Amino acid sequence: MTPEEMVSRLLYRDGLMLVIDKPAGMAVHQGPPNSRDRSRECLQDHFDTLRFGLPRAPALAHRLDRDTSGCLVLGRHRKALAQLGKLFKSGAIDKTYWAVVEGAPDADAGEIALPLGRLDETRGWWMKHDPQGQPSATKWKVMGRSPSGALTWLALEPLTGRTHQLRVHCAEMGWPVLGDAIYGTAPRQGGPILHLHAREIVVPLYKNRAPIRVVAAVPPHMRERLVDCGWDGDEIDAGLALESPGDDAVINKSSL
C-alpha cells in the first residue's frame, strides 16, 4: 500500500480521532510469533503516513478481523486513545456491520445472546459458543433476502466486543457469514472473501457536540450479493460524518 492509497482510505479526521476504511484481507497489526500475519504487510505499517503534523503516528483504538472491511478508529495521541478506550469499553460507541449470510433467518429481527470462549488454546483467536464463557450479545435485523432464499443481508449490532463475535453468533444460529472459512462453509483457499463490513460507527467523542457518525462504502466484493438481496446500491451517506464534527474536522469523500 502506497502513502497515497493509505490517505485515500481516510474517512474522518479531527484533532483526536481518525476513521479509516480498512480493506478486507489485510491484518490491522502483526500477529503473534509463528502466525501467518507475523511477517506480512499489515495496516499498522502505514500509520506514519497519517500523522498530519503530529510527532507520533496514530494508534489503534479497537480491532477488526483481517478479512473484515470498513470503519476502523485510530487515536491520534495517548490522551485520545485513553478517551476512546473508555468509550469502547463502556459500550458508548455504536457499531453497525453489514453481512451477507448463508441461509435465511425465520424472523426479521432479533438478539443473539451466546457466551463465547476459546475454541482451543492452540488455535489463537478461534472462538466457540461456551456456556461458561464471556457474555456476548448481538442485535440483528434482516435488510433483504435473495430471491432464491439462499442468502440474506443482515445489519448486525454487537452489544459486546468479543473476538469473532459476529461470525460465531451467525454460525451458531445456522446462517454463517458468506466467505467465512473458520466458522462457515467456505474453503480455506479459493473461496469468496468474507462478506462482513463495518458499515457505520457512531462516536460520542465531544461533550458539547453531537456524536460523530461515519459510514464506509460497501467494498467491491460484497456489492453483487447485496444487490441480489435487495440493496439498491445507494452510497449517498458513505464517507460522511453525518453529524457536525466541528471546524477542525476533515471528511474524505475520495473513495466514493
Can you tell me about this structure?
This protein has one domain (3-251): Pseudouridine synthase, CATH 3.30.2350.10. β9 (137-145) and β10 (151-158) form a beta hairpin. The two termini are 19 Å apart. 14% of the residues lie in helices and 27% in strands. It is α+β, with helices and mostly antiparallel strands and 256 residues long. The radius of gyration is 18 Å and the shape is globular. It contains 4 helices and 13 strands. The longest helix is centred in the first third of the chain and has 13 residues, at 78-90. Strands 1, 2, 3, 4, 5, 6, 9, 10, 11, 12 and 13 form an 11-stranded mixed β-sheet that branches. Strands 7-8 form a two-stranded antiparallel sheet.
Q: Which tags fit this structure?
A:
two-stranded antiparallel ribbon, 14% helix, 11-stranded mixed beta sheet, alpha+beta, 4 helices, 256 residues, Pseudouridine synthase
Quick recap of the structure?
The chain is 14% helix and 27% strand.
CATH architectural type = 2-Layer Sandwich
- Please report the number of helical segments: 4
Sheet with the most strands? 11 strands, mixed
CATH homologous superfamily name? Answer: Pseudouridine synthase
Give the integer mean of the pLDDT values: 89
Structural class, by secondary structure, is alpha+beta
- Give the percentage of residues in beta strands: 25-35%
Identify the CATH class: Alpha Beta
Order of H and E elements: HEEEEHEEEEEEHEEHE
Low-confidence stretches: none
CATH topology: Pseudouridine synthase
User: Share of helix among residues?
Assistant: 10-25%
DSSP strand count:
13
